[in-house]
Amino acid sequence: MRGPMGGGRPPKNFDRPRDTKGTLRRLLAFMKPFHLGLALVVLFAILGTVFNSLGPMVLGFATNEIQRGFSRMMDGSGGIDFSAVAKILAAMAALYILSGLFGYFQNFLVAGVSQKTIYRLRKTVDEKIKRLPLGYFDRNSIGDVLSRVTNDVDTVATTLQQGINQMVNSTFTVITILVMMLLISPVLTLVAILTLPLTLLASMNVVKVSQKLFKGQADTLGSLNGYIEEMYTGHNVVKVFSKEADTIAAFDRMNEELYRYSWKANFISGIIMPVTSFIGNLGYIIVTMLGAVWVIQGKFLVGSIQSFIQYIRHFSNPIVQFANLANMLQSTMAAAERIFEFLDEAEESPDTATEIIPRQGEGSVEFQHVSFGYSPDRILLKDLSLSIHPGETVAIVGPTGAGKTTLVNLILRFYEVSGGRILLDGADISRMSRRQLRSRIGMVLQDTWLFSGTIRENIRYGRLDATDQEVEEAARSARADKFIRALPQGYDTLLGEDASNISQGQRQLLTIARAILSDPDILILDEATSSVDTRTEVLIQKAMRALMKGRTSFVIAHRLSTIRDAGKILVMRDGDIIETGSHRELMAKGGFYAKLYQSQFQGEEEAS
Q1: pTM for this one?
Q2: Which residues, 6+ apart, have CB-to-CB distance to 449 below 8 Å?
Q3: What burial class does residue 333 get, using C-beta atoms within 10 Å of its C-beta: 0-12 exposed, 13-18 middle, 19+ buried?
Q4: Which end of the chain is flanked by fewer CB atoms within 10 Å, N or C?
Q5: pLDDT of 548-573, one tens digit each?
């Protein structure tokens, strides 16, 4: 965990996205199952664009008809044919109606394709989280992980919803309008597109600068979210040590960092639109002046020039949209790259194809020359061998960092051993499925975890098919039934966020009831009674003795007075088991355990 002094600040120099093309290909791969919908989007975009682009041409026909009518009036040969003008305008209205209908269907399909793609992406991210080893969460803050699976995914979702329409419409609008302009005047078309290379050159230069800034913005936001999550979780500690001012200062520094990246990224990328508009207006001015001269010279009718000028305006719009799309893609590619970095993280080793199912109902555990380290240069357990008989209660004691929790984490396969093997009822746990292995084990931790829901639902989490009667029986065994029934809604009492509406000791009782309900062969109790008062602890100890009867139990305890009745006590130091025996045997040896116990007992006497 980063400290409240701002240790989590992001580095100031971020690289540009490493593989924009590869990221884009992977993003498009998520859309592949919806290729039929995308094909219909393209079809409707073509039809809608064609009908819409014919509008200015048809309007020019109406203007030319009116101009011809005025000419006939001037030479006395006739007048304006209003019926012909009306037919032309009716045709133009029909074109726009058809264009609108196709646009409606296009938007409908784009919404479906984009949301299905994001649904698939979110599902992939969620499934990835469940396959990641605990080591990943040891190295990365929760806030940064949340930023990747929420903020970054939402950024991609917004771009897909808006970007698909813009890209498809802009592409076919440019093509269609270019054809229309060529039909009216190839010369004026050449003049109009002379500014296009300048527009592209300006946009590319801006994109190169903004791309790096958007990557920095996304990474800094992840770091800031991680810092906020840590400070919120530990706000009590911050207040106890009067570090409010320091945490605010650290937040301000990180927020300032994010502000600088965000401001620069959005400002520089925002330059694209005015630059492209300015360059496009230069071509518009030249074409207007040249067209006016040709109308005066009689080379063109007013309606044709009118249509061409409208096409120039329409031609510049998709160019500006491309520029805006390039702006949007910078933040999207940065977000998508962070998502794919997350998806590329190393996963837990897969379960073996030839799964072994151990004997049921025994609970023997054996460590055979087990070695383990959180990193290759940090080996914690070295050539550890240990045999636990079915139904035996084993207490694990030792100073902080001795490897007590690591030992039970290896039994659960939260981490994989570096060497040797662990056997459950004679079966190598590395050849068992994790689901099969963990269904045999119940665990109660010092840090309680309860979700927002009723008390009944939280206890039933241990076995989802349990009846209400079984849930209540488990609560009685855990000595939780009395306090639950004293609550206003009893077992249907809704727990708030972090279950803050009940005490810490009551939360621990509920987690114990949940473990009892799961009816495991093996129990792991990691400081399970450390958060309750002495009177409640006595009640829990009685319930635990009944629960552990006939079951293999591992009890991790710092208060040595709570494990004096354990059948076997393992004393660990620096990853090694240095002493083994009962409480009486270890005290008689006068070794490390005896000194640890005496110093603790003496400390408790002095404290009292």
Answers
A1: 0.64
A2: 511
A3: buried
A4: C
A5: 777 888 888 777 767 877 888 999 88
